[in-house]
């Protein structure tokens, strides 16, 4: 027996309702690529919880071969009076906690805020390493990874061949302390006392751009 017209219309309506439910049902596999610098920072706030404290990253640290985190210019006595004084972060090279303000005190500093998924950061980091080699002890260049996934940061630095000293800052405390905008990458220039000389929310495109920023903002020619 054929179904009545009313039954056919009811079945069609049910199919449409089911299709709409499927279309709007939340998905966990959204892997869209962010299209602007602001979206890079937004993604950092919505990533997975990151490496658990018990995860052993020894192999990743060894593969990355990062330089040790900096120490005060005078060997220990220098103290920062700037916004980073007393701020605790984790050294990427060995996983040990450090007082960032104390670590960078006593000489000019370029802090580079980045994340492992940030494409402009990937382009910029090799220039920062080249600049660090050129500047030597005159300027400290230090990376600050903001995403919770520390293992991914180590893997990216290994891929990039970047050996700069770096710290892990899950809570974006450095950005908050210096008043950095919600974009990545950001370079923060600090004078020897630890005070902020400039916050530059832009990727550097060459070693010369970095050197010029350091010269004009910190008065250091390298």
UniProtKB/TrEMBL annotation:
Keyword list, A-Z: Cytochrome c-type biogenesis, Disulfide bond, Redox-active center, Signal-anchor, Transmembrane
Thioredoxin domain span: 76-219
One of the Pfam families matching this protein, by short name: Redoxin
Domain of life: Bacteria
Gene3D superfamilies: Glutaredoxin
Keyword Transmembrane: yes
Intracellular or extracellular location(s): Cell envelope
Chief location category: other
Name this protein carries in UniProt: TlpA family protein disulfide reductase
Species of origin: Rhodococcoides kroppenstedtii
Phylogenetic lineage: Bacteria, Bacillati, Actinomycetota, Actinomycetes, Mycobacteriales
């Amino acid at each position: 027996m054929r179904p009545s017209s009313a039954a056919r219309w009811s079945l069609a309506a049910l199919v449409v309702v089911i299709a709409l439910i499927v279309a709007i049902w939340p998905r966990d596999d959204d892997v869209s690529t962010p299209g602007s610098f602001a979206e890079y920072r937004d993604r950092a706030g919505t990533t997975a919880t990151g490496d658990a404290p018990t995860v052993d990253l020894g192999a990743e640290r060894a593969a990355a071969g990062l330089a040790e985190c900096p120490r005060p210019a005078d060997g220990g006595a220098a103290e920062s009076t700037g916004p980073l004084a007393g701020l605790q972060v984790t050294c990427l090279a060995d996983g040990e906690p450090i007082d960032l303000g104390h670590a960078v005190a006593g000489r000019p500093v370029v802090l580079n805020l980045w994340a492992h998924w940030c494409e402009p950061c990937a382009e910029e980091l090799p220039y920062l390493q080249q600049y660090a080699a050129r500047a030597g002890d005159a300027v400290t260049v230090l990376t600050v990874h903001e995403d919770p996934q520390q293992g991914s940061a180590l893997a990216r630095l290994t891929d990039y061949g970047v050996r700069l000293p770096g710290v892990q800052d899950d809570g974006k405390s450095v950005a908050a302390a210096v008043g950095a905008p919600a974009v990545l990458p950001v370079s923060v220039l600090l004078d020897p006392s630890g005070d902020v000389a400039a916050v530059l929310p832009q990727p550097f495109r060459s070693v010369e751009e970095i050197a010029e920023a350091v010269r004009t903002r910190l008065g250091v020619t390298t």
